Amino acid sequence: MDSRAASCTCGQLRIEVQGEPLGVGLCHCLACQRRTGSVFAALASFAAPCKVLGTATEYVRTGDQGAKFRFRFCPVCGTTVFHTEEGCEQSSVSVAVGAFADPSFPAPQDSVYDCRRHSWVRLPDGIRSYDKDPT
User: Fold this and answer.
1) Is the distance from CB of 32 to CB of 116 less than 8 angstroms?
2) In terms of CB atoms within 10 Å, which end of the chain has fewer, N or C?
3) Residues in domain CENP-V/GFA (predicted)?
């Protein structure tokens, strides 16, 4: 099984995942915009287990539907590298696509919170879009 590694800007925090992503998506919610400092977040979900190297600082945020998400970021450079949903830590992890620094990474299949998408952001052809989070 192929592995992939993602890391923060300074390299102190890394995560290694196995196999292909379970899914790749974009989130345009205001919380992700604030968290990333960008106009959307690009995330890839991978099946557990994963291997984390380095030290992470954590921030827990409650989503619109009550789920709690634990974001891990580097305490040195501040880069958000991955997050898990509380209660699902043993099954999957979501990794920031940019942390792989791989332009050939698979394209997103889904886009959520399109009600918050900036009007000038164009989605790839064939992507499924949802006004809110469909889960």
Assistant:
1) no
2) N
3) 4-114
Is 79:9 a contact under the CB 8 Å cutoff? Answer: yes
b (16+ CB within 10 A) / e for 51-66 = eeebebeeeeeeeeee
CA atoms of 52 and 32, how far apart (whole Å): 22
Distance CA 99, CA 82 (A): 9
Residue boundaries of the structural domains of the chain: 3-122
What is the arrangement of strands in the sheet containing 3-7, beginning at the earlier edge strand?
3-7, 14-18, 51-53
Q: What is the pLDDT along the chain (135 residues), one digit of tens a residue?
A: 689 999 999 999 999 999 999 999 999 999 999 999 999 999 999 999 999 999 999 999 988 788 899 999 999 999 999 999 988 878 899 999 999 999 999 999 999 999 999 999 999 999 999 999 887
Look up residue 83 and give its two tokens: 């997050």
Does the structural domain 3-122 have CATH classification 3.40.50.720? no
